[in-house]
Amino acid sequence: MDADGPAPPCVCVLCGLPAAGKSTLARSVCGVSAERGWRCAVLPYDELIPEGAFHAKVARDGCRDEQEAQTEWKSHRQALLQCLDQALTGAKPGVVGEPPTPAMMDHEAWRRCTDSLSLGGDTSPLLIVLDDNFYYPSMRHEVYQLARKHSLGFCQVYLKCPVESCVSRNQRRSRPLPTSVILEMSKRLEPPNPQRNSWEKNSITLNSDCLSEMDIKSLLEFISSALSNPLIQVEDNTEQKEADRLKCAVSVVHQADQVCRRLVSEAMKTARENQVPPEQMRFLASEMNESKTKFLHHLRTQYLQELPVIRGEDIDVHHVVKTATDAFEKDIKEILFETLRNGHSR
Protein backbone atom coordinates (compact mmCIF):
# COMPACT_ATOMS: atom_id res chain seq x y z
CA MET A 1 0.00 0.00 0.00
CA ASP A 2 1.04 3.60 -0.49
CA ALA A 3 2.70 5.41 2.37
CA ASP A 4 -0.21 7.88 2.41
CA GLY A 5 -2.82 5.13 2.24
CA PRO A 6 -4.49 3.22 5.04
CA ALA A 7 -2.45 1.13 7.43
CA PRO A 8 -2.26 -2.58 6.54
CA PRO A 9 -5.06 -4.67 8.06
CA CYS A 10 -4.30 -7.33 10.65
CA VAL A 11 -5.50 -10.93 10.41
CA CYS A 12 -6.28 -12.60 13.73
CA VAL A 13 -6.73 -16.38 13.69
CA LEU A 14 -8.96 -17.80 16.43
CA CYS A 15 -8.38 -21.49 17.04
CA GLY A 16 -9.75 -24.01 19.51
CA LEU A 17 -12.34 -26.72 19.95
CA PRO A 18 -15.99 -26.29 18.95
CA ALA A 19 -17.94 -24.47 21.70
CA ALA A 20 -14.71 -23.19 23.28
CA GLY A 21 -16.11 -19.65 23.06
CA LYS A 22 -14.39 -18.39 19.91
CA SER A 23 -17.45 -16.63 18.44
CA THR A 24 -18.22 -14.99 21.78
CA LEU A 25 -14.62 -13.81 22.00
CA ALA A 26 -14.78 -12.48 18.43
CA ARG A 27 -17.82 -10.37 19.31
CA SER A 28 -16.09 -9.03 22.43
CA VAL A 29 -12.95 -8.16 20.46
CA CYS A 30 -15.00 -6.31 17.84
CA GLY A 31 -16.81 -4.34 20.52
CA VAL A 32 -13.59 -3.22 22.22
CA SER A 33 -11.96 -2.59 18.82
CA ALA A 34 -14.70 -0.07 17.96
CA GLU A 35 -13.91 1.81 21.17
CA ARG A 36 -10.34 2.16 19.89
CA GLY A 37 -11.48 3.45 16.53
CA TRP A 38 -10.70 0.22 14.71
CA ARG A 39 -12.93 -1.47 12.18
CA CYS A 40 -13.48 -5.18 12.68
CA ALA A 41 -14.60 -7.85 10.21
CA VAL A 42 -15.34 -11.34 11.51
CA LEU A 43 -15.29 -14.24 9.06
CA PRO A 44 -17.27 -17.03 10.80
CA TYR A 45 -16.46 -20.20 8.91
CA ASP A 46 -19.54 -21.97 10.30
CA GLU A 47 -21.78 -19.40 8.59
CA LEU A 48 -19.77 -18.97 5.40
CA ILE A 49 -19.23 -22.66 4.62
CA PRO A 50 -22.32 -24.80 3.94
CA GLU A 51 -23.39 -26.99 6.85
CA GLY A 52 -22.98 -30.27 4.95
CA ALA A 53 -19.34 -29.67 4.04
CA PHE A 54 -17.97 -31.55 7.03
CA HIS A 55 -20.61 -34.24 7.41
CA ALA A 56 -18.51 -37.40 7.45
CA LYS A 57 -20.05 -40.17 5.45
CA VAL A 58 -20.75 -43.43 7.23
CA ALA A 59 -19.30 -46.45 5.51
CA ARG A 60 -19.94 -50.13 6.06
CA ASP A 61 -19.42 -51.43 9.64
CA GLY A 62 -19.86 -47.91 10.98
CA CYS A 63 -16.40 -46.65 9.95
CA ARG A 64 -16.44 -42.96 8.95
CA ASP A 65 -14.67 -42.00 5.75
CA GLU A 66 -12.67 -39.27 7.54
CA GLN A 67 -10.23 -38.58 4.72
CA GLU A 68 -13.01 -37.79 2.24
CA ALA A 69 -14.74 -35.50 4.73
CA GLN A 70 -11.49 -33.67 5.55
CA THR A 71 -10.68 -33.24 1.87
CA GLU A 72 -14.10 -31.71 1.21
CA TRP A 73 -13.78 -29.34 4.18
CA LYS A 74 -10.28 -28.36 3.04
CA SER A 75 -11.57 -27.33 -0.39
CA HIS A 76 -14.16 -25.07 1.25
CA ARG A 77 -11.57 -23.50 3.55
CA GLN A 78 -9.27 -22.80 0.62
CA ALA A 79 -12.15 -21.26 -1.35
CA LEU A 80 -12.81 -18.90 1.56
CA LEU A 81 -9.16 -17.86 1.70
CA GLN A 82 -9.18 -17.27 -2.07
CA CYS A 83 -12.14 -14.93 -1.63
CA LEU A 84 -10.32 -13.09 1.14
CA ASP A 85 -7.25 -12.88 -1.09
CA GLN A 86 -9.37 -11.29 -3.84
CA ALA A 87 -10.96 -8.87 -1.39
CA LEU A 88 -7.54 -7.76 -0.11
CA THR A 89 -6.17 -7.42 -3.63
CA GLY A 90 -9.10 -5.24 -4.72
CA ALA A 91 -9.72 -3.52 -1.41
CA LYS A 92 -11.14 -0.27 -2.73
CA PRO A 93 -14.65 1.23 -2.95
CA GLY A 94 -17.13 -1.13 -4.57
CA VAL A 95 -14.60 -3.89 -5.25
CA VAL A 96 -14.72 -7.06 -3.20
CA GLY A 97 -13.89 -10.70 -3.76
CA GLU A 98 -16.48 -12.66 -5.69
CA PRO A 99 -17.50 -15.83 -3.86
CA PRO A 100 -17.41 -19.17 -5.69
CA THR A 101 -20.49 -21.26 -6.35
CA PRO A 102 -23.19 -21.44 -3.65
CA ALA A 103 -22.18 -25.04 -3.02
CA MET A 104 -18.79 -23.79 -1.82
CA MET A 105 -19.86 -20.75 0.19
CA ASP A 106 -22.95 -18.93 1.43
CA HIS A 107 -23.19 -15.82 -0.78
CA GLU A 108 -25.32 -13.78 1.62
CA ALA A 109 -22.99 -14.46 4.55
CA TRP A 110 -20.00 -13.50 2.40
CA ARG A 111 -21.66 -10.23 1.32
CA ARG A 112 -22.21 -9.33 4.97
CA CYS A 113 -18.51 -9.90 5.64
CA THR A 114 -17.30 -7.90 2.64
CA ASP A 115 -19.30 -4.85 3.75
CA SER A 116 -16.64 -4.29 6.39
CA LEU A 117 -13.66 -5.47 4.30
CA SER A 118 -13.73 -2.69 1.69
CA LEU A 119 -11.15 -0.10 2.69
CA GLY A 120 -12.49 2.84 0.69
CA GLY A 121 -11.27 6.17 2.03
CA ASP A 122 -11.37 4.98 5.64
CA THR A 123 -7.84 4.95 7.04
CA SER A 124 -8.77 3.53 10.45
CA PRO A 125 -7.11 0.20 11.31
CA LEU A 126 -8.93 -2.90 10.08
CA LEU A 127 -8.92 -6.11 12.09
CA ILE A 128 -9.96 -9.29 10.25
CA VAL A 129 -10.89 -12.10 12.63
CA LEU A 130 -11.03 -15.65 11.24
CA ASP A 131 -13.32 -17.73 13.46
CA ASP A 132 -12.78 -21.47 13.00
CA ASN A 133 -11.18 -24.44 14.77
CA PHE A 134 -7.84 -24.32 12.89
CA TYR A 135 -6.76 -27.47 14.74
CA TYR A 136 -3.78 -28.29 12.47
CA PRO A 137 -0.72 -26.03 12.00
CA SER A 138 -1.04 -26.48 8.22
CA MET A 139 -4.48 -24.79 8.34
CA ARG A 140 -3.05 -21.79 10.19
CA HIS A 141 0.02 -21.65 7.99
CA GLU A 142 -2.19 -21.05 4.93
CA VAL A 143 -3.49 -17.89 6.61
CA TYR A 144 0.03 -16.84 7.59
CA GLN A 145 1.15 -17.15 3.97
CA LEU A 146 -1.80 -15.01 2.85
CA ALA A 147 -0.96 -12.37 5.46
CA ARG A 148 2.67 -12.30 4.36
CA LYS A 149 1.66 -12.07 0.69
CA HIS A 150 -0.27 -8.85 1.44
CA SER A 151 2.13 -7.59 4.14
CA LEU A 152 -0.60 -7.69 6.78
CA GLY A 153 -0.37 -7.91 10.52
CA PHE A 154 -0.77 -11.48 11.75
CA CYS A 155 -1.53 -13.04 15.12
CA GLN A 156 -3.09 -16.17 16.56
CA VAL A 157 -5.32 -16.66 19.59
CA TYR A 158 -5.71 -20.15 20.99
CA LEU A 159 -8.79 -20.39 23.19
CA LYS A 160 -8.05 -23.19 25.60
CA CYS A 161 -11.06 -24.98 27.05
CA PRO A 162 -11.49 -28.39 28.72
CA VAL A 163 -13.17 -30.82 26.36
CA GLU A 164 -15.82 -31.54 29.02
CA SER A 165 -16.81 -27.87 29.06
CA CYS A 166 -16.98 -27.79 25.26
CA VAL A 167 -19.25 -30.85 25.21
CA SER A 168 -21.50 -29.33 27.88
CA ARG A 169 -21.76 -25.97 26.09
CA ASN A 170 -22.36 -27.67 22.76
CA GLN A 171 -25.29 -29.64 24.16
CA ARG A 172 -26.99 -26.36 25.12
CA ARG A 173 -26.82 -25.06 21.55
CA SER A 174 -29.92 -25.03 19.36
CA ARG A 175 -28.04 -27.02 16.71
CA PRO A 176 -25.35 -28.99 18.55
CA LEU A 177 -22.58 -30.94 16.88
CA PRO A 178 -22.33 -34.66 17.57
CA THR A 179 -20.27 -35.13 20.75
CA SER A 180 -18.07 -37.56 18.83
CA VAL A 181 -16.92 -34.71 16.56
CA ILE A 182 -15.66 -32.67 19.51
CA LEU A 183 -13.97 -35.68 21.12
CA GLU A 184 -12.29 -36.58 17.84
CA MET A 185 -11.08 -33.03 17.27
CA SER A 186 -9.68 -32.86 20.81
CA LYS A 187 -7.40 -35.76 19.88
CA ARG A 188 -6.24 -34.05 16.69
CA LEU A 189 -5.89 -30.48 17.98
CA GLU A 190 -2.36 -29.09 17.79
CA PRO A 191 -2.23 -25.65 19.52
CA PRO A 192 0.19 -22.98 18.27
CA ASN A 193 3.77 -23.96 19.07
CA PRO A 194 6.27 -21.09 18.52
CA GLN A 195 9.16 -23.32 19.65
CA ARG A 196 8.49 -25.75 16.80
CA ASN A 197 7.09 -23.30 14.21
CA SER A 198 8.86 -19.95 14.07
CA TRP A 199 6.00 -18.38 12.10
CA GLU A 200 3.70 -18.96 15.11
CA LYS A 201 5.72 -16.70 17.38
CA ASN A 202 2.93 -14.10 17.46
CA SER A 203 0.49 -16.34 19.35
CA ILE A 204 -1.33 -16.06 22.65
CA THR A 205 -3.28 -18.58 24.73
CA LEU A 206 -6.39 -17.62 26.69
CA ASN A 207 -8.31 -19.77 29.15
CA SER A 208 -11.94 -19.84 28.10
CA ASP A 209 -13.23 -20.90 31.52
CA CYS A 210 -11.93 -17.81 33.30
CA LEU A 211 -11.81 -15.07 30.67
CA SER A 212 -11.86 -11.60 32.22
CA GLU A 213 -12.11 -8.00 30.99
CA MET A 214 -8.40 -7.68 31.75
CA ASP A 215 -7.72 -10.61 29.41
CA ILE A 216 -9.67 -8.84 26.63
CA LYS A 217 -7.69 -5.64 27.18
CA SER A 218 -4.42 -7.58 27.12
CA LEU A 219 -5.56 -9.29 23.92
CA LEU A 220 -6.24 -5.91 22.30
CA GLU A 221 -2.73 -4.76 23.20
CA PHE A 222 -1.42 -7.97 21.66
CA ILE A 223 -3.42 -7.34 18.47
CA SER A 224 -2.32 -3.68 18.44
CA SER A 225 1.30 -4.84 18.36
CA ALA A 226 0.51 -7.09 15.38
CA LEU A 227 -1.19 -4.16 13.60
CA SER A 228 1.92 -2.06 14.13
CA ASN A 229 4.26 -4.77 12.87
CA PRO A 230 2.94 -6.18 9.58
CA LEU A 231 4.70 -9.09 7.95
CA ILE A 232 7.21 -8.33 5.22
CA GLN A 233 7.76 -10.38 2.09
CA VAL A 234 11.38 -11.45 2.30
CA GLU A 235 13.41 -14.36 1.05
CA ASP A 236 13.74 -16.52 4.14
CA ASN A 237 15.30 -19.94 3.79
CA THR A 238 14.03 -20.95 7.22
CA GLU A 239 10.45 -20.19 6.20
CA GLN A 240 10.91 -22.13 2.97
CA LYS A 241 12.21 -25.13 4.85
CA GLU A 242 9.26 -24.96 7.22
CA ALA A 243 6.82 -24.73 4.32
CA ASP A 244 8.50 -27.71 2.64
CA ARG A 245 8.37 -29.71 5.87
CA LEU A 246 4.66 -28.98 6.30
CA LYS A 247 3.96 -29.91 2.68
CA CYS A 248 5.85 -33.17 3.08
CA ALA A 249 4.10 -33.91 6.38
CA VAL A 250 0.66 -33.42 4.81
CA SER A 251 1.61 -35.81 1.99
CA VAL A 252 2.89 -38.44 4.40
CA VAL A 253 -0.19 -38.22 6.64
CA HIS A 254 -2.52 -38.40 3.63
CA GLN A 255 -0.84 -41.50 2.23
CA ALA A 256 -0.54 -43.11 5.65
CA ASP A 257 -4.25 -42.54 6.23
CA GLN A 258 -5.03 -44.27 2.93
CA VAL A 259 -2.91 -47.27 3.96
CA CYS A 260 -4.51 -47.39 7.41
CA ARG A 261 -8.03 -47.35 5.99
CA ARG A 262 -7.12 -50.19 3.63
CA LEU A 263 -5.67 -52.23 6.50
CA VAL A 264 -8.77 -51.65 8.65
CA SER A 265 -11.04 -52.59 5.74
CA GLU A 266 -9.10 -55.82 5.11
CA ALA A 267 -9.20 -56.70 8.81
CA MET A 268 -12.96 -56.14 8.95
CA LYS A 269 -13.40 -58.32 5.86
CA THR A 270 -11.40 -61.10 7.52
CA ALA A 271 -13.57 -60.78 10.64
CA ARG A 272 -16.77 -61.08 8.58
CA GLU A 273 -15.40 -64.13 6.76
CA ASN A 274 -14.75 -65.70 10.18
CA GLN A 275 -18.37 -64.99 11.15
CA VAL A 276 -17.60 -62.64 14.02
CA PRO A 277 -20.93 -61.65 15.68
CA PRO A 278 -22.36 -58.18 14.86
CA GLU A 279 -21.79 -56.84 18.39
CA GLN A 280 -18.13 -57.84 18.28
CA MET A 281 -17.86 -56.38 14.76
CA ARG A 282 -19.01 -52.98 16.06
CA PHE A 283 -16.55 -53.17 18.93
CA LEU A 284 -13.77 -54.24 16.55
CA ALA A 285 -14.49 -51.30 14.20
CA SER A 286 -14.45 -48.86 17.12
CA GLU A 287 -11.20 -50.26 18.51
CA MET A 288 -9.46 -50.16 15.13
CA ASN A 289 -10.60 -46.62 14.42
CA GLU A 290 -9.36 -45.49 17.83
CA SER A 291 -6.02 -47.15 17.11
CA LYS A 292 -5.86 -45.40 13.73
CA THR A 293 -6.61 -42.01 15.28
CA LYS A 294 -3.87 -42.44 17.89
CA PHE A 295 -1.41 -43.63 15.25
CA LEU A 296 -2.04 -40.66 12.92
CA HIS A 297 -1.83 -38.22 15.84
CA HIS A 298 1.55 -39.71 16.85
CA LEU A 299 2.64 -39.54 13.21
CA ARG A 300 1.84 -35.80 13.02
CA THR A 301 3.06 -34.67 16.41
CA GLN A 302 6.14 -36.83 17.00
CA TYR A 303 7.33 -39.07 14.19
CA LEU A 304 7.29 -36.42 11.44
CA GLN A 305 8.80 -33.80 13.74
CA GLU A 306 11.90 -35.97 14.05
CA LEU A 307 12.51 -35.99 10.29
CA PRO A 308 15.31 -33.68 9.07
CA VAL A 309 14.03 -30.25 8.00
CA ILE A 310 14.98 -30.49 4.34
CA ARG A 311 13.17 -29.90 1.08
CA GLY A 312 10.15 -32.16 0.67
CA GLU A 313 11.31 -33.64 -2.61
CA ASP A 314 14.48 -34.92 -0.91
CA ILE A 315 12.45 -37.16 1.41
CA ASP A 316 11.41 -40.62 0.25
CA VAL A 317 7.74 -40.24 1.19
CA HIS A 318 6.96 -43.85 0.21
CA HIS A 319 9.67 -45.15 2.55
CA VAL A 320 8.51 -42.93 5.42
CA VAL A 321 4.90 -44.07 4.97
CA LYS A 322 5.93 -47.76 4.75
CA THR A 323 8.09 -47.56 7.87
CA ALA A 324 5.39 -45.77 9.86
CA THR A 325 2.44 -47.93 8.79
CA ASP A 326 4.27 -51.21 9.43
CA ALA A 327 3.80 -50.57 13.15
CA PHE A 328 0.10 -49.82 12.68
CA GLU A 329 -0.36 -53.00 10.63
CA LYS A 330 1.12 -54.99 13.51
CA ASP A 331 -1.34 -53.39 15.96
CA ILE A 332 -4.29 -54.12 13.68
CA LYS A 333 -3.30 -57.77 13.31
CA GLU A 334 -3.01 -58.11 17.10
CA ILE A 335 -6.47 -56.57 17.61
CA LEU A 336 -7.96 -58.88 14.96
CA PHE A 337 -6.20 -61.93 16.41
CA GLU A 338 -7.58 -61.23 19.89
CA THR A 339 -11.09 -60.77 18.48
CA LEU A 340 -10.95 -64.03 16.52
CA ARG A 341 -9.47 -65.92 19.45
CA ASN A 342 -12.12 -64.67 21.86
CA GLY A 343 -14.82 -65.49 19.31
CA HIS A 344 -13.63 -69.06 18.85
CA SER A 345 -13.16 -69.62 22.59
CA ARG A 346 -16.91 -69.08 23.21
List the helices and strands and how they pair.
Elements: E1 10-15, H1 22-35, E2 39-44, H2 45-48, H3 66-89, H4 107-114, E3 126-131, H5 137-149, E4 153-160, H6 163-171, H7 179-188, E5 203-207, H8 213-228, H9 237-273, H10 278-303, H11 317-345
Parallel strand pairs: 1-3, 1-4, 2-3, 4-5
Helix pairs in contact: 1-8, 6-7, 9-10, 9-11, 10-11
Explain what this protein looks like in three dimensions.
The chain is α/β, with parallel strands linked by helices and 346 residues long. It contains 11 helices and 5 strands; from the N terminus they run E-H-E-H-H-H-E-H-E-H-H-E-H-H-H-H. It has a 5-stranded parallel beta sheet with strand order 2-3-1-4-5, with helices on both faces. The relative contact order is 0.13. Mean pLDDT is 80; it is low at 56-68, 91-96 and 309-313.
Main beta sheet: strand number and arrangement? 5 strands, parallel
Based on secondary structure, the structural category is alpha/beta
Measured by DSSP, the beta-strand proportion falls in 5-15%
Strand order of the largest sheet: 2-3-1-4-5
Count of extended strands? 5
Cα radius of gyration in angstroms: 22 Å
Mean pLDDT: 80
Order of helices and strands: EHEHHHEHEHHEHHHH
Distance between the termini: 75 Å
Helix count equals: 11
> Residue ranges: pLDDT <50 for 5 or more in a row?
56-68, 91-96, 309-313
Q: What global shape is seen?
A: elongated
**Helix share, percent:** 40-55%
